[in-house]
Amino acid sequence: MEYPGNLFVVAAPSGAGKSTLVKALLELDAKLDVSISHTSRQPRGQEQHGREYWFISADEFNGMAARGEFFEWAQVHGNLYGTSRAAIEERMAHGDDVVLEIDFQGALQIKKLFPYAVLIFILPPSWEELMLRLNRRGDTAPDVIAERMSNAREEVAQARHFDFVVVNAVFETALFDLKSIVHAQRLKYAAQRRNRSAVFRALDLP
Ligand SMILES: Nc1nc2c(ncn2[C@@H]2O[C@H](COP(=O)(O)OP(=O)(O)O)[C@@H](O)[C@H]2O)c(=O)[nH]1
Ligand SMILES: Nc1ncnc2c1ncn2[C@@H]1O[C@H](COP(=O)(O)OP(=O)(O)O)[C@@H](O)[C@H]1O
Predict the structure, then answer these.
(1) CA distance 14 to 141
(2) Among 67, 108, 183, 198, which has the minimal tally of Cβ within 10 Å of its Cβ?
């Protein structure tokens, strides 16, 4: 499938800082929009239905999956998560750039459907720091943290299938790296189309 916009996929082990980085990236980049996934997990902390996720029951989720309403879906840490066609199809058809914050299984499914998607893996600087961040976030129970830390080993091993790896040690540096990847992809895409006005738009030139 091919749409005129760019598609960025960001994955990371839980607690690496993916949501915080993507939120900061969106604030800096008016041309980028994040996809809101559906999940069967319960809302956490300050999360709101329709803002962080569409929170639905496992039955509703399975119904949507059976009707083919997802581009991709996966079971992660015991819950179901998926990117609905409705969430991104219209925006991509308009040529807008979209970022998906999903796990590695979903990222690999998206790459099969959209080979031009740019896959970015966020790494924590160390296992110790990952554990500290999960604890510091303060909204995740100890048994859930333990499960996420044990799944993190398998997830990090998948980084080799991604186009880019960003280490989130110093936040501002990681954010700059992400911005650079988005910027470079826009220039590459514009150059491929040999489209002068697209190159100027990517450079933010008048
Ligand atoms: N495949 C897939 N994974 C998703 C989707 N939405 C979120 N995830 C992933 O599910 C995992 C758990 O997310 P979440 O429950 O928000 O916990 P967090 O990673 O600790 O913030 C993360 O790896 C997310 O990237 C989706 O639509 N599809
Ligand atoms: N570079 C960083 N240095 C220190 N703390 C960070 C950094 N990046 C993110 N954090 C913090 O780590 C915690 C986990 O970040 P979050 O974005 O929720 O992770 P994820 O979405 O990958 O599960 C949050 O409390 C966040 O503020």
Answers:
(1) 13
(2) 67
CA angle centred on 28, ends 22 and 31, rounded to 5°: 90
Q: How many domains does the chain have?
A: 1
Question: Sheet harboring 53-55: ordered strands across?
Answer: 53-55, 37-39, 79-84, 70-76
* CATH classification of the domain holding 30: 3.40.50.300
Tokens at residue 77, please? Answer: 């840490």
Residue 75, domain member (yes or no) = no
Atom 25 of ligand 1, nearest CA residue: 102
* pTM for the structure as a whole: 0.93
Residue-number span of the structural domain to which 195 is assigned: 7-35+97-202
Per-residue pLDDT tens over the stretch 168-195: 999 999 999 999 999 999 988 877 765 6
Asked whether the ipTM of the predicted complex exceeds the cut of 0.90, the reply is yes
Residue ranges at the known binding site for ATP: 12-19
Q: Which of 18, 69, 83, 102 best tests ligand 1's pocket when mutated (most atoms within 8 Å of CB)? A: 102
